[in-house]
Automatic annotation (TrEMBL):
The keyword Metal-binding does not apply. The lineage of its organism: Bacteria, Bacillati, Bacillota, Bacilli, Bacillales. The keyword Transferase applies. It comes from Anoxybacteroides amylolyticum. PROSITE patterns: UPF0033. Pfam families: TusA (PF01206). Belongs to the sulfur carrier protein TusA family. SUPFAM superfamilies: SirA-like. Keywords: Transferase. Coiled coil: none annotated. This is Sulfurtransferase TusA family protein.
Amino acid sequence: MNVVKRVDAKGVSCPMPLVKTKKAIDELASGQVLEVQTTDKGAKNDLAAWAKVSGHKLVEMKEENGVLTFWIEKA
């Protein structure tokens, strides 16, 4: 997976992971992949729902050692 940009949203709570993700994805071209890392458990539902509604593709999500990592492909 060719990650173009990374967002570190660890240690911040809702809605900041989503706010940071929205800002970062606006800087990408269509088809590019954004990696987001957060410790906010609510982001699991928030980012998945936002990606779906906004037309982006949630490529993968994993949880390891309390950190959620998302890979989102810009529409």
